[in-house]
Input
Amino acid sequence: MTSPRGFRDRGDDSLLTLLGDVPELVRNLVIAEIEAAKKWLARTAKDGGWGALWVFAALFVLFWSVPVFGTFVIAGLSSWWPVWVSAIVVFFAMLIVTAILGLLGYLRFRKIGERQNPVQSIAQDVKEVRDEL
Output
């Protein structure tokens, strides 16, 4: 008889049958843990790559866009304001853009620490087995 989730009711099996199934169950558990570790590593590498990309984008804006775009905007604003006021306004606008891009990168890196890694999962499994015994 199977349960609604598809698991077989093992209440009527003999002790030797249950002991004979232990190696296969352990093997399945090890394979599942290795697959979980691979998936965790792939997600972590992806988030790390995206975080590095956002930080690189912030640095790109800070170091390459400031001279080109900043000069253009300063020249345009200097027709209404003095040149020094125009330069300060453009500088702070670029700092805000850099802070936003840096924050996006930081938030992506923070996702890495929020996931449960496979070692923690194995430790939790071992703890649950010990609690049952």
